[in-house]
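Example S7 (C-alpha cells).
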C-alpha cells in the first residue's frame, strides 16, 4: 500500500515537473548573451538593456546611418523582433547610451547624440522626453551620464564646442558650462580620487572634479578608449585605457600614477 502511494506521488511529481518545464520560456544561451554584450560594449552605436517587464531575451538599441534609432528584442534561438523605430533625427547618431536619469537605480532612458543635438527617449514607451535645440551646440564630441551634483537625478555631461556642459536628467536644464576648453572624444563620470565626489575623466588626459570644475590632474594622455573600474577592490575606481597599437594601461588617479601589477 505504501509502495503504491509512493509510486503515485512520484508520478505526480514527474508530471508536474514536465508541465512546468513545458510552460517555461527558454532563456538566452551564454553564447547568445556574450554576442549581444560584445556588440553593445564595443560599438558606440549600440546599447543593450534588460526588458522592463522581466520578459526573456534582451533589448538592443541600434543607431543606423540614416538618422534613426531602432529598438530590437533579441530572443533565444537567434530570433529578432524590431519593436520601435524613431523618427528621423537631425543626422546619424554618433553614440547611444542606456541611462538611469531619475537616479532610482533602474535604467529608464535612451540618450543619444548626433553631431549637433542630444536626444532622450523614455524606455517605457519610447516617448521623446527631450531634445536640445538646433542652436544649443554646433559640435558635440563626447558625452557621458553621471550624478555630478547633490540631487538624486543624474546629469548628461557633454563636451561640445570645446566646453563641458551639465544638463539635468529630470528638468533637462543646463546647469553648468565650463570656462576651460576641452577636446575629448571619450569621457566617463565616477569617483576616481576616493573622496566621494564625482570626477569627470576625459580621454585627452584631464581629470576634473565635477562639483567645482577644477582640473585635478592632467599629466597624461589616456588614449582613444577608457573605462572606470575598481580593479584592485580598494573602493576607488581606476582609469583603464587603450588605443589601437598601444598597450593597455591602468591609472590610479588618487596616487597620480600608472598602476603596476
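Recovered sequence:
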Amino acid at each position: 500500500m505504501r509502495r503504491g502511494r509512493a509510486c503515485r506521488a512520484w508520478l505526480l511529481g514527474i508530471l508536474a515537473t514536465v508541465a512546468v518545464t513545458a510552460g517555461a520560456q527558454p532563456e538566452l544561451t551564454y553564447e547568445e548573451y556574450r554576442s549581444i554584450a560584445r556588440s553593445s560594449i564595443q560599438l558606440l552605436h549600440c546599447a543593450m538593456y534588460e526588458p522592463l517587464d522581466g520578459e526573456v531575451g534582451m533589448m538592443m538599441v541600434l543607431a543606423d546611418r540614416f538618422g534613426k534609432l531602432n529598438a530590437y528584442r533579441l530572443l533565444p534561438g537567434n530570433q529578432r523582433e524590431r519593436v520601435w523605430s524613431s523618427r528621423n533625427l537631425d543626422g546619424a547618431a554618433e553614440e547611444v547610451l542606456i541611462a538611469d536619469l531619475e537616479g532610482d537605480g533602474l535604467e529608464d532612458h535612451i540618450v543619444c547624440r548626433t553631431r549637433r543635438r542630444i536626444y532622450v527617449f523614455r524606455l517605457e514607451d519610447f516617448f521623446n522626453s527631450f531634445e536640445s535645440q538646433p542652436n544649443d551646440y554646433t559640435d558635440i564630441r563626447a558625452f557621458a551620464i553621471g550624478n555630478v551634483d547633490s540631487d538624486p537625478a543624474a546629469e548628461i555631461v557633454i563636451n561640445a564646442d570645446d566646453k563641458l556642459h551639465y544638463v539635468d536628467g529630470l528638468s533637462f536644464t543646463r546647469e553648468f558650462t565650463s570656462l576651460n576648453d576641452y577636446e575629448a572624444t571619450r569621457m566617463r563620470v565616477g569617483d576616481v580620487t576616493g573622496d566621494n565626489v564625482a570626477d569627470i575623466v576625459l580621454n585627452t588626459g584631464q581629470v576634473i572634479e565635477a562639483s567645482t570644475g577644477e582640473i585635478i590632474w592632467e599629466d597624461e594622455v589616456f588614449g582613444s578608449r577608457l573605462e572606470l573600474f575598481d580593479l584592485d577592490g580598494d573602493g576607488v575606481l581606476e582609469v583603464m585605457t587603450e588605443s589601437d597599437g598601444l598597450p593597455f594601461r591602468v591609472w590610479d588617479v588618487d596616487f597620480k600614477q600608472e598602476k603596476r601589477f
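Notes on this example. Confidence is low (pLDDT under 50) at residues 1-23.
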